[in-house]
């Protein structure tokens, strides 16, 4: 689910090595039908099964998918290049592979904040949410206005993105943020939030604990009390998304 505001362990299970996208004539203009056909030809049953599983981070994919490896999607995007109209058409299909490809083709400057919000609300799969965030949302000129709006949203996907944007601000540009208030909201709301929202609220909690020593003890205490991801399975050499472990490990690495 592109770099996320999650620890290394928080990434979804890896899939097989990507293969080359079908060759296309140089300078070719891709149509929606041709692009979908290429995506379909790259489909993989094991990827479809993996996509459908979901996890602690949120929803898995439904039936509207081909099961294309992420590396193959990137290779196809490299062939097509930026194509805003095609990207919007791909997004409207609701196919998760097409939507992931769309995030790599969109011209963010041509996307209004209203269009972006509608795209976020239409998400059905966490990988799509994370790609849209990484390649479109956090690059949008109105991201701060949307961040403030989405932090109070009842929609799981806009709320997820709002907390994801906030976690990014905590880590990189925290001036003007009320960190105490954010901790208060996390303490009161995270336990009952939707899984998709919990994931990025937890990231925000961890970022506060990592970057602000005066608030570290409280952030760790909140994470410990809530216990979210305490038993999350971790691969060897990876860091747990359980906030107390995550915070302490990142602080240790800072020296």
UniProtKB/TrEMBL annotation:
PANTHER family tied to this protein: DNA ALKYLATION REPAIR PROTEIN (PTHR41291)
Pfam families listed in its UniProt record: DNA_alkylation
Region: Disordered, residue numbers: 1-27
Gene3D superfamilies per the UniProt record, alphabetical: 1.25.10.90
Highest rank taxon of the organism: Bacteria
Organism expressing this protein natively: Anatilimnocola aggregata
InterPro entries: ARM-type_fold, DNA_alkylation
The protein's name in its UniProt record: DNA alkylation repair enzyme
Record field: compositional bias (Low complexity): 7-27
